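Blinded run. Sample ID left blank on purpose so nobody reads anything into the name before looking at the predicted structure. Input follows.
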Amino acid sequence: MDQSIKFDLDLIHRYDKSGPRYTSYPTALELHEGFGEAEYRQQIAKSNALGGPLSLYFHIPFCDTVCFYCACNKIITKNRAHAVPYLDSLVQEIAMQGALFDKSRVVNQLHWGGGTPTFLNYAQMRQLMEATRTHFNLRDDDKGEYSIEVDPRETNDQTIAQLRELGFNRISLGLQDFDPAVQKAVNRIQSKEQTFAVLDAARQEGFRSTNIDLIYGLPLQTEQSFAATLDQVLAYEPDRFSIFNYAHMPSRFKTQRQIVETELPSPALKLDILQMVGKKLTDAGYVYIGMDHFAKPDDELAVAQREGKLYRNFQGYSTHSDCDLVGLGVTSIGRVADAYLQNNKELDEYQSSIAEGKLPVFRGVALDEDDKLRRAVITQLICHFDLDFSKIEQEFNISFHDYFGPEFASLNAMQNDGLLTLSDQGIQVLPAGRLLIRNICMVFDRYLAQKQQQFSRVI
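Blinded prediction complete.
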């Protein structure tokens, strides 16, 4: 499989508009409060009837300090005692949800995100993992994909050893940028020594995959400064990179109002940075997985993409397309059977639901047949950069050309622009179209027109 990319400035300028990241379809904007605990229980019953492995996501919302760019659901506090009542509620939710899923279903994927999961101390992390093992069927053979997000400022050698002991075998390190001026502008002061000590410790403890998160488009960044950060990280050869485009949306995310807008790089400069990133990483031997993600050619994500087994969920790209995703904790989102659902977004509401013995589901959406069809099309395109019409036709008993007749006008225009090739058999995304894969997927999104202004720009 050709996993290369081509940077075409003219195309990027013409197609740079707002759109979803497609960690789900329909997107989270379609979740509604008419879907609650009763509907979720129905979907769990359907899921159990189908069987198969599970994926668990745990949201740990606490952070010691605020990073001004952050758009995550988090609670900023230096008081570690705030984690105690939350952890009690989370353990109760684990028991409640675990009782509803067949215990024979193996957990092949587990992820702790946040916030900062390592805000918890070792005893609390062990309590959380033990509760999970009691109520769900966790693997004992280290063959699962058990991952955690860590802040190197909150982590040391002992923490990494403890995480490995608890069963984690993949780790993602938040970094964003090493430049001191940029760090000060976004209120995230983090040294190279802290960062690389954690990376070294993870390798020594036998973590099978290491990922580094970077963000381009932050205040005071230049192409040269970000290249310096990238060079320093490349010297340590992490298995994966997640390099995100900073989306400045202060009307939605209050912490971003502390960023000085005049210090943000221009759109042209952001494109220069992105082009530099793509060249440096591909020259270093990494392959473009898609949607901000690069990996070494022998990494599980790159292999899964070449073998046609890559999937995309709320944590990004995954090798476990066969897993229903159970979300646990405040604001977490899950995908079970034919539905997406989200827990309460406010901490007091989440804890009140748990105290009353209720599942903390406050909204969701059950997919209809059109949703499932379009999800299959979008997932195939965003993960593999191609689409075989016959496979979709066989799975959904449709004629692709008849069903998606109106979409072909947009696809033909994209073919004329060199984003893709279109034939009677399918779609093949070209190297120039891979950076714009969101645009191609948007062609098949029937909800997009009325919601487009609520998404970040694709580039």
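Unblinding after everyone has recorded impressions. DSSP finds 18 helices and 20 strands in the chain.
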